[in-house]
Every structure is written in C-alpha cells, then in structure tokens.
Amino acid sequence: MKKKLLFPLFLFTFSAAALTATAAETPATEMESSSEASETDTLTFEDLSGYTFEFSSGAGAWSTYFTIEKDGSFAGNYHDSDMGSTGDGYDHGTLYYSEFSGHFTDLTKVDDTTYEMTLSDIAYQNTVGETEIIDSIKYVYSEAYGLTGTDTFKICLPGTPVSALSAEVYSWVSIANDNDTELTLPIIVNEAEELGIYSYKRSTPSEEARSLYDDCKTAYDDLNTKLTAASTQQEMNTCAGEMYTTTDTCLNQLWQLLKDNVPEDKYQEILKEQLQWINEKEAAADKIRQENDGSSSEMQASLDLSARTLARCEDLLTYIQTTAE
After folding, report:
1. For residues 6 and 58, is the Cβ–Cβ distance under 8 A?
2. Of the candidate ranges 3-7, 32-36, 81-85, 154-158, the one whose mean pLDDT is the lowest
3. What is the Cα–Cα distance from 325 to 277, expressed in whole angstroms?
4. What interhelical angle do 297-323 and 264-291 show, nearest 10?
5. Minimal CA–CA distance to 1: which of 69, 68, 63?
6. Residue 139 Cα distances to 65, 126, 254, angstroms
7. Which whole-number Å values give the CA distances from 87 to 83, 132, 133, 303, in the listed order?
8. Are 46 and 64 in contact (CB under 8 A)?
9. Using the 8-state DSSP alphabet, how is residue 164 labeled?
10. pLDDT score of 210 more than 50
C-alpha cells in the first residue's frame, strides 16, 4: 500500500520492550554547498549527519526514515500502516514495520555534485517475515523499503541538474525540491531500484520534540471531534483506537529523542519512572475492560490509554526541553 507522506511517523505501541530500541547519535553539522564541496574536494559523512533522510512519496501511510552519523553508521525506521486490515486479535489494523541500523562506507567522489557510497551492512531489530500482535495491532516485520536491491548508493548534492536524474528517481524527491532545474537539497539515489531519497535539515532535540508534540495534539483534538460526531459504536471505536495510536506514536518518537540526548544518569532516572508508568497504564486499561463487558469496553480502554499517553508525552517534552544535551 503506497501513499504519500510529508513527515516521518513511527506507528508502534509503546511497551517496556520498546525501551531497548537502538538509537542513533544526534550531530548538528550542515551540508556544504556544491561550490564548497568543490573547493574542499571532498564530502564526508559528518556533512551528511546534518540531515534526516526520508523515502516516501509525499503524504500518507508509509515511509522509510533514517539518519547518518559522522562515522557512516545509520539508524532508522520503516512503516506501512493498513488500519483497515483487521482480524482476530488485531482490531486496530496491520503495520508493516522495521527498526534498522547499519553502516555506509567508501564515500567516493564521482564528480563535483555526485558521490557514491557502499551499504556495508544492515541489521533489523526483529526478524524480517515474522509477525506478532501487540495491543490489537498486527506487526509484520519487513525490510526497509528504499534500502534494498543494491549495496551501492549515489549522493547527489544541491546544484545537481534535474536533467541528470531519471524521471522515476526525480518523481520521488520532487515534492521536497524547490527548483525545477536543479536540486536544492542532497538526495540519496538507489539506481538499481530507480528510487530517490530526499532530505531535510535535522532540528535540535527541543525543536523536534515540540513539533512532534504539537502535531500529535492537533491530530488528537481532530479525532476527538470526530468521536463526538460519530453515530455508531464501530465509528467511535475506530476514532478512539486512532487516538491511542496517535499518542503512542508521539510517545515513541519523544522517547527516542530523550534516549539519544539526555545525560545517562538522567535517562536512567526517567527510564525507571517510565517502566512504572507503563505498568500503571496497562493495568488501568485491563481494569476498564474487565469492568465493562459491553461493546464500548474497548473504546473506553482506548480513550483512557490515549489520555494517559498524551499526558506522558507532555512530561517527556518537558524533560527533553530542560535536560537534552
């Protein structure tokens, strides 16, 4: 299911297991312009570390998102959600998902605006092909779309003529490019699959956290309005489930930022608090389900989960803003 996505989303349920996810480091360098790259005659992974790379087609349900660090290591996330694909035990839909990490090596100049690099290795947190159901969502663990089919990738810098790219490659990055004749941003090209991966500047942890929370709160309020206007129990259940998915998505993103950027002693303190919060959240939802046997029990549980999770997002936002390095 391929749709358009404007920004990266991480749609997975926050549980104790999620706390052990691999995290990327967060540098703050910026890409040299093509003229500067020509003067220094080199492009480095440190230059690339100032950007976030994303493969999607604009706006919708799927995306591959990753960052590259100054040593060539990378880490990211792929998801493709199909909330209409439900079944026994997974009323909230299906998620094709992976968390991955690896290394790029052999960054080599081709010409003034083009470089090549090798995908040396890539590893997945979960075994590709396996499935499991977590909190009424079926997870299908998958490869990172955009990073398969080859181990050689091109990097095209700002200033690269659009005419130097195939129409298929440019179609993937055109939505992020500000000029019809040349690139205004660095892109990564998977020539074997005819895919283009666009980029944008990495924000500070505090800026990114605020943006994530604000987007979550807007979506939460919109869904709450839809819930109020819903006329059937099924519609209400769907809205409540999406409210929880939305807040849980934000919580995971904020936790990753916190894990990457707060001092270790503070992180361990918050981790202990977080594990306690997870247990309390899940116990409260179980109690609601046990005490409400009717058709609205899952809706009530989802609403309680979403409210608690949104409040916890506010806590993590504050921690990141006040303690992030």
Report:
1. yes
2. 3-7
3. 24
4. 170
5. 63
6. 18, 10, 21
7. 11, 13, 10, 21
8. no
9. G
10. yes
